[in-house]
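Hi, can you check this record?
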Amino acid sequence: MRVLLDESIPRQLARQLIGHEVRTVSQQGWRGLKNGLLLKQAGAHRFDVLVTADQNIEHQQNLASVGVGIVVLAAVTNRIEDLIPLVPRLLRALAAVQVGKVVTVGQ
């Protein structure tokens, strides 16, 4: 699965997503893109899912048309130390998320 990590997610999380092709927004040269354009770019570049900490993304976008699934990580902070405990549930969410749908993974 091709996974895109949003700017709100530490790049170190990519190492935890074994078995997936993971890129960051920064690696793609997409820093600063607004959510709508970012989601369109992700879909156009054949990413399967965007992993973000933006808990409002579901309410900001027409997700049916974006072409990717979204996993929202809801932790105390976005620091890697707070996100690592979510990795087992994140991996399960990656396996289950569907295009145009949002799955929230939290503590």
About this structure: The helical segments are 25-28, 35-44, 57-60, 80-83, 87-96. The chain has one domain: 2-106. The two ends are 24 Å apart (CA to CA).
